[in-house]
Amino acid sequence: MKRRSVVSHSDTRLRHLDLALLRVFIAVFETRGVVRAAQQLAMSQPGLSTALARLRTLLDDPLFIKTARGMEPTTRARALIEPIRSILDTVQAQLFTPPEFNPTNTQREFRLALSDIGEGIYLPLVLQRVAQEAPGARVRSVTLSPQALAQAMDAGEVDLAVGYFPDIRTGEYLHRRVGLHSFACIMRSDHPLAGKRMSLAQFAGLGHVVIEASGRSQEVLEKFFRSHRIQRRVVLHTPHFMSVPVIVASTDVVAIVPQALADFITTQRGLCQVPLPFVPPTFQVNMHWHRSVHNDPGNRWLRDVLISQFVTLQARAYDRNGRKSPSTRIAAATLQRKAKT
Fold this sequence. Notes:
By secondary structure, the protein is of the alpha/beta class. It has 14 helices and twelve strands. β1 (64-67) and β2 form a beta hairpin. α2 (19-31) crosses α4 (45-59). The longest helix is centred in the first third of the chain and has 22 residues, at 75-96. It is rod-shaped, with a radius of gyration of 32 Å. The N and C termini lie far apart (74 Å). Mean pLDDT is 85; it is low at 324-341.
């Protein structure tokens, strides 16, 4: 036998109740008259009378009694006036008041999905700006698999993902490009090939470090090597980018790393960059966020923080093989001017 659903009388009445009826109730209560209430709400008198009749039926009470002094509320109406005002005030405050975010007094924790390169290069710049504008805020950096990242962003557990994330493609996410990156070769400063133009044969004969990190950028490089049949003599596989500078600085091995990392680590003593004997591939770095947080003022503030700080990184404009060109120097100057205005 098919089970019948049980619907209470109160549930039925609730389906027929709308907020406009509550506004009619308050207007009549305050003005003590149908005509004045209709004028206050910019309604016709017949329309307001119809609405009042509906409310009387729903609440099973006359609510207002016509007297010589006007429409006097019943005992039931007097008991309902404050709850109804509270309901409308709550609706106004919770539904129609735009959410606010004040960075100066927020205690919010912002969660960023970054690679270890992102932590080492981008996160210090972000923290500097956060410390200035939101001293009470906290930042948490996480590294997740592509599937776990999508689930975390869907659940609101990650505010932004910044980096090369080719798996984030669905219409549930928005993104903004923050850079086009390439690759560079790093070696120790007193390496026999330091400061020299390297041939493809010399490149193939060197000992190479291959980074197998969780980030996806190295996949672009490995695919490029396979498609162009470029050979290397691999002597070390490591899952960590940030240990590579120490290894390269103290041995004859070289490493091909994202240009941004090469720029960062070759400021350290004992390391240098050498142009590759081929034009390396590029990959696009984006900032991703879920559509559900697009209008969240805190998330919007965080996006602005990252964009403002990425100007600093974008000003480090390079061609596709680690050497500055006149056009990129002009682009860098333009970006720096925009950052000041």
